[in-house]
C-alpha cells in the first residue's frame, strides 16, 4: 500500500493529476493524523494578516499551517490568494489546484443530502469549509447515529437567502475523526489503569 508520504510527494509534484481521495485516506492512516489539533493561534494570525493586507504575515502563517497539516484546505486557499496578490501566477495556481483537489475529493464522497450519502470529512473544520464553498449558512447542528456511523446534521440556508427561506439539511460523515478520538481516549484510559497502584 502506498504511504501518505509517497502520495503527498506525488501530489506536491503534480497536484493537477493527484488522487486526492487516496491522499486523504492515507493521511488518516498515518501517524501524522491529528484531527483535533487545531492551530488556533496561527489561524488567528492568518486572519489578522489577511484583514490588514499583510501579505508577508499571511504567507508565514499559511506555511506554518501547511507544515502542520498539508491537507489544510483553508491554508491552501489563503496561500493562493496571497500569491495572486503578489502576481506569482505559478504558485497561486499550485495552491489553487491543491485546494480544488481536496474540496472535490470531499464532494465526490456523496451528495450530502441524506445520512447515507453524507460527505466524508477527516476533521470538523472541513464541514464549515465545504458549507462556505457551496454557499450555505449553517444553523442548528446535531450529531446522529446512522446505521452505526456518526453523522453531523446541519440545518442550512443559502447565503444571502431572502428572509423566510426554509432551511434544508446537509450531512457529514465524521466517522474518521470520531474513531481517532475514541481510540485516543481508550488508550489514555488503559494507560491510566496501568499506572494505578
Can you walk me through this structure?
The protein has 197 residues and is an alpha+beta fold. It has two domains: 104 residues, Serine Threonine Protein Phosphatase 5, Tetratricopeptide repeat; 81 residues, no CATH class. The protein is 55% helix and 15% strand. The chain has eight helices and four strands, in the order ααααααβαβββα. It has a four-stranded mixed sheet with strand order 1-4-3-2, covered by helices on one side. A hairpin with a 2-residue loop joins strand 2 and strand 3. The longest helix is centred in the last third of the chain and has 21 residues. It starts with a helix and ends with a helix.
Key terms for this structure?
alpha+beta, four-stranded mixed sheet, 2 domains, Serine Threonine Protein Phosphatase 5, Tetratricopeptide repeat, 8 helices, 197 residues, 55% helix, 4 strands
CATH first level of the largest domain: which class?
Mainly Alpha
The biggest sheet amounts to:
4 strands, mixed
Low-confidence blocks of residues = none
Task: Indicate the radius of gyration in whole angstroms.
Answer: 18 Å
Write the layout of secondary structure elements.
Elements: H1 4-13, H2 20-29, H3 40-51, H4 55-68, H5 73-85, H6 89-107, E1 119-120, H7 125-133, E2 136-146, E3 149-158, E4 168-173, H8 175-195
Parallel strand pairs: 1-4
Antiparallel strand pairs: 2-3, 3-4
Helix pairs in contact: 1-2, 3-4, 4-5, 5-6
